[in-house]
Amino acid sequence: MPDHEPAKVYPKGMHAAIAEGLNEHSDFVVTTATMDEPEHGLTAKVLDETDVLIWWGHIAHHEVSDEVVERVWSRVVTDGMGLIVLHSGHMSKPFRKLMGTTCLLKWREAGEKERIWVIDRAHPISDGLPDYFELPHTEMYGEPFDIPQPDELVFVSWFAGGEVFRSGCCWHRGRGKVFYFRPGHETYPIYYDANVRIVLSNAVKWAAPVAGPAMADGGATEPIEPLG
Hints:
Blueprint: H1 6-9, H2 14-22, H3 44-48, E1 52-55, H4 66-77, E2 82-86, H5 93-99, E3 106-118, E4 132-142, E5 152-159, E6 164-173, E7 176-181, H6 194-207
Parallel strand pairs: 1-2, 2-7
Antiparallel strand pairs: 3-4, 3-5, 5-6, 6-7
Helix pairs in contact: 4-5
């Protein structure tokens, strides 16, 4: 297993590597936000101008402002912003709030091989991928994974240690769509992988808002047809 250090693998940060892959698509306008910015870079104005938010986090989940979490949740559920959650983001506040479960799982960091199988070949997120692709060194995540049953399951991973994992999961939440994608770790160059970059760009297109009726405010309403 290569001896990788995060600063050597991602000298400009993981967010920069993810943005680099997305910037290969001329129809995307990509910006980044980090924890050390005011409001974590996710002000109301920024989120109002965001069609799809990609979220990655690791050990600082508890430091994320509850106000920002509520803002992200509202943009997804009420306004239809897409949310893509990566790797350790399974423990992020926004993802857990949208799932309504603990999102706990098994893990092991041994640098083992991961084989990612496409199990829904008709799904737009799998467009352009082979039947499977492999990452030579990665952190293992294993079942059980405490999430609601996905609306659509796109990928399943197998690890050299024997575990399997639901690694590409889709949900609809209100007007918005959520995609969880497992691969990614700060000590392995996963976000430079060509197939991973295909997944992320496809996921952005899938999760983007679509035109449709605005969310109703609820409450009493008049009948459309005459009654009685």
